[in-house]
Design a protein that fits this description.
Distance between the termini: 43 Å
Shape: globular
Number of helices: 16
Helix content: 40-55%
Protein name: S-adenosylmethionine-dependent methyltransferase
Oligomer: single chain
Keywords: Methyltransferase, Transferase
Organism: Melia azedarach (Chinaberry tree)
Bound molecules: S-adenosylmethionine
Strand content: 5-15%
Length: 486
């Protein structure tokens, strides 16, 4: 244990080889200095007035934290709060020499964690605050509820395969269901509906069909459905629009599905549609001007620069592993997981798919606006959509490598929506429903209207050539996995 006087703290910040501040000592020191509720937690009424929030200290910390993983100070405070609440009071007291604390000069202690522990914690922090933002809530003109036809079509196209898969592969005996039971389903990354309600209803009907096929009376079965999304999702809209005639008990579960969300062996079916391509964060090297993977000139992984694809792909694999590990614990042995995900045909750059082309178009509008001085070029250089669509073969290899699940079924199909719709307004509202949150977070609230207005005007002018372009269809995949029994 090291004892440090408060005055020494800022100059002492260690840097790693890449020059970034080392996480753990900084985080702990930062927690102790910056957390607004700390005095409340520890009843340090006077310490709060001690100048913890003296503008100079705040500015110093803001500068340090701003450089740290590119997180703004307010975001850093959220991480700090979460870190503190996990530590608990006793552990925090242990970090501070409580007895020697005085309102004007108190001492701090922190443990010298090993590099490995620091790395582990850094990883955990990543999952506390996913760098993805939920869809637009409510039921306004740009809401996800009104602009998610693409995603709904995927659920609709998969219905028959989902039913067949459940009827063929769900083994009610091995799940221990004999006469009556509570069947638990979770939809992860559900957003606000209505798609999640349709997907859940399809699953329930398939389970009932299976139950009947085994000469059991489905009325003895009760369903409980968990709707999960990030805690900033508009759960109010989700709850308000729950189907009034539903025959299940509904619950909302806030939090990132990269972490554990449910008790061990408590779920029978997990469903996750059009969601896993959202990354928990933008890989650091993508926005690092010194890295060969710096993605200057593009706002997404367009598939042309090898280093950029590798960085995105590595982040995706990392995120998928956390997802699989958490679900392996939560699903009962023999339980099923249904994943719907869009993949890119092997060897095709993402820009040569319909969605990729749209992201390029949004990017070109932003670069126009930067040239006209309407948005900051520097800000634009660090703006990337936090999503990655894996190649088909890449995704297949990833799920085959997982030891906890067996692939029971894998179906490919194409989403017909783009061949059916030609309205620029349709596409621009869909884009806004999905990315308004990211744009607001990155550029600021006041830029949302100008950016999306400029984009929709330009799209109107160019929709003909966009729809006529020679592009590849993405491969939509339904993957049915079974939790191994060992
Ligand atoms: C395109 S929407 C899909 C919504 C719905 N599944 C559907 O098919 O319409 C993706 C959703 O995933 C959520 N999401 C992204 N990352 C997540 C995470 N780590 N944990 C939970 N939800 C997440 C987003 O907030 C968003 O609501």
């Amino acid at each position: 244990m090291t004892v440090i006087a408060k005055q020494k703290i800022l100059p002492e910040c260690k840097k790693n080889a890449a020059g970034a501040p080392v996480l753990l000592p900084w985080l702990i020191k930062g927690c102790l200095l910056a957390h607004k509720d700390l005095p409340k937690i520890l009843h340090f009424d006077k310490a709060y007035d001690d100048g913890i929030f003296n503008p100079f200290w705040r500015m110093q910390m803001e500068r340090k934290f701003f450089n740290f993983h590119g997180l703004p100070f307010s975001t850093m405070l959220t991480v700090i709060s979460s870190f503190l609440s996990r530590l608990g009071r006793a552990a925090i007291e242990d970090l501070i020499d409580v007895k020697n604390s005085s309102p004007f000069h108190y001492k701090l202690r922190f443990s010298d964690a090993s590099e490995c522990e620091q790395e582990k914690m850094a990883k955990e922090e990543t999952y506390i605050l996913p760098k993805s933002y939920p869809m637009v809530g409510g039921d306004g003109p740009y809401s996800y509820a009104k602009n998610s036809v693409f995603q709904k079509t995927i659920v609709d196209c998969a219905k028959e395969m989902v039913t067949e898969g459940i009827v063929e592969k769900l083994d009610l005996q091995s799940l221990g269901f004999k006469n009556s039971c509570t069947f638990r389903i979770a939809d992860l990354g559900c957003s606000v509906g209505p798609n999640t309600f349709i997907a859940v209803q399809n699953i329930i009907e398939a389970v009932e069909q299976k139950y009947q096929a085994e000469n059991k009376n489905p009325s003895t079965m009760e369903f409980q459905v968990f709707f999960n999304d990030l805690d900033i999702n508009d759960f109010n809209t989700l709850f308000k629009t729950l189907p009034p005639d539903r025959e299940y008990f509904a619950a909302g579960v806030p939090g990132s599905f990269r972490n554990r969300l449910f008790p061990k062996s408590s779920l029978h079916i997990v469903h996750c549609s059009t969601t896993l391509h959202w990354l928990s964060k933008i890989p650091d090297e993508i926005v690092d001007s010194k890295s060969p993977a710096w993605n200057k000139g593009s706002i997404h992984c367009n598939g042309f620069a090898k280093e950029v694809v590798e960085a995105y792909s590595a982040q995706f694999k990392n995120d998928m592993n956390s997802f699989f590990n958490a679900r392996a614990k939560e699903l009962v042995p023999g339980g099923l997981m249904l994943i719907l995900i869009s993949t890119v045909p092997d060897g095709v750059p993402a820009s040569n798919t319909f969605e990729g082309m749209h992201y390029d178009f949004l990017g070109s509008c932003l670069y126009d606006m930067a040239k006209m001085g309407l948005i900051s070029e520097e800000k634009l250089d660090s703006f990337n959509l936090s999503l990655y669509f894996p190649f088909y073969g890449e995704f297949e290899a990833l799920i085959r490598r997982n030891e906890n699940f067996t692939i029971e079924r894998m179906d490919k199909f194409t989403n017909p929506t783009r061949k059916m719709v030609s309205s620029a307004e349709f596409y621009s509202s869909h884009m806004r429903a999905g990315f308004e949150g990211l744009v607001k977070e990155h550029f600021g609230d006041q830029f949302v209207e100008p950016i999306f207005n400029y984009y929709s005007t330009k799209l109107e002018e160019n929709i003909g050539s966009i729809l006529d372009a020679e592009i590849h269809d993405k491969i939509e995949l339904l993957v049915l996995l079974k939790r191994n029994t060992n």
